[in-house]
Write a structure and sequence with these properties.
Blueprint: E1 2-4, H1 6-15, E2 20-21, E3 27-29, H2 31-39, E4 43-44, H3 58-70, H4 79-99, H5 103-118, H6 153-156, H7 161-181, H8 187-200
Helix pairs in contact: 1-2, 1-3, 4-5, 4-7, 7-8
Length: 210
């Protein structure tokens, strides 16, 4: 005995709404599926008042849905590169703002922008953005870590609050891009931003959660 579930019916209804449903031989509705049909006011075959329609085979319909999904256009292959370029522009914008507040910090943000442009390139030279601290070093800078500490309104209102929030925003954007890329190529930039945030808040020892 094969049971037709609510999920089976929802898939069919999204692709082709129907007003009646006929069960094939050897199949039964689960309670959830039955309630779905009742809620949608869809007549079904074991209802004596149902209006018969040409039955369809559920398995064939599932295969059709899979085929349609497989043919859906995928994201352009160069989309990651385009988003990286947009992120580089954000780093440049932040660097320009910081030029009026902290020239040394601005220079480090510009360095990270260049680091982004080298991501994925075999010809990239020595990474000068890596700085050793009690939490990060050359052996783990490529690993993925959570934020050293949560950025809240408390940090935003501190003496270097604007700098901290701008760096945190950049870190969030790089982390989103890293998740889309599905690899660790952006982790050094994320971890370096974490170091800068910690330094701006006045941290002398790494506050990264173990």
């Amino acid at each position: 005995m094969k049971f037709i579930t609510e999920d089976d019916l929802r898939i069919l209804f999204r692709r082709e709404p129907f007003t009646s449903y006929d069960l094939q031989g050897g199949t039964r509705l689960t309670p959830g599926a039955r309630q779905f049909l009742v809620d949608k006011k869809i007549s079904f075959s074991d209802d004596p008042m149902s209006v018969k329609r040409k039955p369809f085979k559920l398995e064939e319909k599932k295969e059709e849905v899979k085929a349609q999904e497989a043919n859906m256009p995928s994201a352009p292959s160069g989309m990651l590169e385009l988003k990286t370029k947009t992120l580089q522009a954000q780093f440049l914008e932040v660097g320009l703002v910081l030029m009026e507040r902290d020239v040394l910090l601005a220079q480090q943000v510009f360095d990270l922008e260049r680091k982004l442009s080298d991501v994925g390139k075999e010809s990239a030279g020595e990474d000068n953005t890596i700085k050793v601290c009690t939490g990060f070093h050359k052996d783990n800078i490529n690993e993925s870590f959570s934020d050293c500490f949560d950025i809240t309104g408390f940090h935003a209102q501190s003496e270097k609050g604007k700098e901290i929030v701008m760096l945190h925003r950049l870190r969030c954007c790089v982390r989103e891009l890293s998740a889309e890329a599905g690899d660790n190529r952006f982790n050094p930039v994320i971890n370096r931003l974490s170091q800068l945030i910690c330094l701006e808040y006045g941290g002398k020892a790494c506050q990264r959660k173990q």
